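job 3f2a | input accepted
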Amino acid sequence: MNGKKYFVMAIVLNAVLMALATHFGRHYLCEAQACETNDPRTAALIGRGGKFGPVMEITLPAAKSESTPEITDLETGRALVQPSVESFNSRADAIMGWVRSHGLDISCNVWSGGATCVTYDMTVVSVESKCWEKTTSEELAANAALSPVRHAPRRLLVLGQDRPDTYVFRTGEGTLGMLQIVGLNEDGRGVKIRYKLIKPVTSGSFVNSQKPS
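job 3f2a | predicted structure (213 res):
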């Protein structure tokens, strides 16, 4: 498949995701509800004992029109470029298998008319902007909307006026967190975000593979 065909496929996919984002984008939730947490991955960016870790501020680089996206793992801050669709024989399930196997979470697209962030295998719920400061880690861990699911569909988080900019989420590895879209970076080739993560409290014990310095 040549670059032009891939670009057309990307436009179609983005249109479908845009429709989903419009449908779900105004769903605000700020109240805590009971839920279970399980199997979170531990890393240096994740707060200990059910508490928020540090606020991380990063820029997601925009995918070029005829290349594959660079997808970021929120738990580690690592980003990987997705191999070409030809590498997966154009199979969507194989692409998502690669994304999940590397624990990747979010990328972005930027074009002349706007920008979006794309989430992968993340449960994402928009909340009011004030929730960024007001929501406690205990409330986040008790939010029933973030209950574990086998796999979550991709979501488009659209930048723009009257669009949500603040979200609560659970990654595919089970890590809970909050994310806020700041806007385009200085050169307009990426999207600035900030986020904070917690390691949910469970009955089991966890050993950090990386310890904060």
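job 3f2a | Helices lie at 3-24, 92-101, 131-134, 137-141.
job 3f2a | closed
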